[in-house]
Specification:
about 150 residues, mainly alpha, Arc Repressor Mutant, subunit A, three-stranded antiparallel β-sheet, globular
Length: about 150
């Protein structure tokens, strides 16, 4: 008779969430040095990438794209505004909405940021095919959790 330990399901080595968490944390750590040259944190960098790609939008739209709640996003946006990278404006027609747009300085930062992905190439030691599969699986998982 095989006895199955009831506690196997709470062993760290049996969890999917832990390697996802640890890997994400390590990737963010590896971004730290290249992003120092831009005076950005990783989270600020992903916000800037969305703004570079899509242009101005409301705080709510931006939060959905980067998967951050207002409590996390608002102070981050205040810091980006203080750095001179973005404008935060309440439109006259709707004082409840906060519009986020890039400043000239924020737009110019894009030229410096264009080298970041190349600098990070190879931070995850997987083949390009494995990275493509991993990205597709993570995208699928995120969609299923939304």
């Amino acid at each position: 008779m095989i006895i199955i330990n009831n506690y196997d399901n709470i062993k760290l080595d049996n969890q999917l969430c832990f390697p996802l968490y640890a890997c994400a944390k390590e990737v963010v750590r590896q971004y730290r040095k290249p992003l120092e040259a831009l005076n950005l944190t990783y989270t600020q960098y992903i916000v800037m990438m969305v703004l570079w790609e899509h242009g101005g939008m409301t705080e709510g739209e931006l939060g959905k794209k980067v998967r951050l709640d207002s409590g996390t996003l608002a102070p981050l946006l205040k810091r980006l505004e203080k750095q001179g990278y973005i404008n935060r404006i309440h439109p006259e027609f709707n004082e409840n909405k906060l519009m986020i747009s890039l400043t000239e300085q924020g737009e110019a930062l894009k030229e410096k940021a264009v080298s970041i992905p190349q600098m990070m190439d190879g931070c995850i030691q997987l083949s390009s095919e494995e990275l493509t599969i991993l990205k597709k699986l993570l995208d699928k998982a995120l969609i299923s959790m939304s």
